[in-house]
UniProtKB/TrEMBL annotation:
PANTHER family: ALPHA-ASPARTYL DIPEPTIDASE, PROTEASE S51 ALPHA-ASPARTYL DIPEPTIDASE. This is Si:dkey-69o16.5. It comes from the Eukaryota. GO terms for biological process: proteolysis. InterPro entries: Class_I_gatase-like, Peptidase_S51. Keywords: Hydrolase, Protease, Serine protease. Belongs to the peptidase S51 family. It comes from Oryzias latipes (Japanese rice fish). The lineage of its organism: Eukaryota, Metazoa, Chordata, Craniata, Vertebrata. The keyword Hydrolase applies.
Length: 216
């Protein structure tokens, strides 16, 4: 079964509204076969307000939104989902909540085996990878493990920025030679990290597997 992933670096660009910068990619990605999208608001503290923001946006695109935090049985909600969108926020809070809800493996199964389209933004992109080890977020809570959903066999840093030679920042960054700016999928994917510049688009395919990954 072909995996279908839309992985977005951020939800909002300066001067624009929520998901405005990638709404065309969203409609192309989910298409007409998906009518309802299961939204996962776990990365933010105020899940009700976050869900309202996502629901309002997706309704303008022609999709209804069900929120995982509103479901009586989160696992059953994932099993019924036509499409899944995990929003951004704090990656540690998000992954812990996914494990607390016992949906990590269920989401993986739906995407990997059933072909359910998966969209992630920022933290939602981080948890689609092998682990959250490349997140820039502060560990405000601790998940039981850093191992993530594993929809792609590499890690991603969704907030990579081009080097600024005029910067006086003296601390470590994701741009340092020790982490590399970009390492593509190799024969040892567990060691691979994909650092993708923000707000740039690309689609990636491999000879062995086809991944519809659009970076926006």
């Amino acid at each position: 079964m072909k995996r279908r992933l839309l992985l977005v670096s951020n939800s909002t660009l300066h001067g624009g509204g929520y998901l405005d910068h990638c709404q065309q990619q969203i409609t192309e990605f989910f298409g007409k076969d998906v009518r309802r999208v299961l939204f996962v608001p776990y990365a933010l503290h105020d899940r009700d307000a976050y869900t309202k923001t996502a629901r309002n946006k997706f309704q303008t695109l022609g999709y209804e939104v069900d929120s995982l935090h509103e479901a009586e049985d989160p696992v059953r909600a994932v099993r019924k989902a036509e499409g899944i969108f995990i929003g951004g926020g704090n990656t540690f809070r998000l992954l812990k909540s996914l494990y607390d809800s016992k949906v990590v493996m269920e989401i993986r199964k739906r995407v990997m085996e059933d072909g359910v389209p998966y969209m992630g933004s920022s933290a939602g992109t981080n948890v689609a990878t092998i682990s959250i080890s490349t997140t820039n977020d502060m560990p405000i809570v601790y998940p039981p493990t850093f191992a993530a959903i594993g929809l792609v066999p590499f890690n991603i840093n969704p907030h990579y920025l081009d080097h600024d030679s005029s910067s006086r920042h003296m601390g470590p960054s994701v741009l340092s030679p020790s982490t590399s700016t970009l390492i593509t999928w190799t024969t040892t994917p567990a060691a691979a990290t994909w650092g993708r510049p923000e707000n740039r688009g690309s689609r990636s395919t491999t000879k062995k597997q086809t991944l519809q990954v659009c970076w926006v």
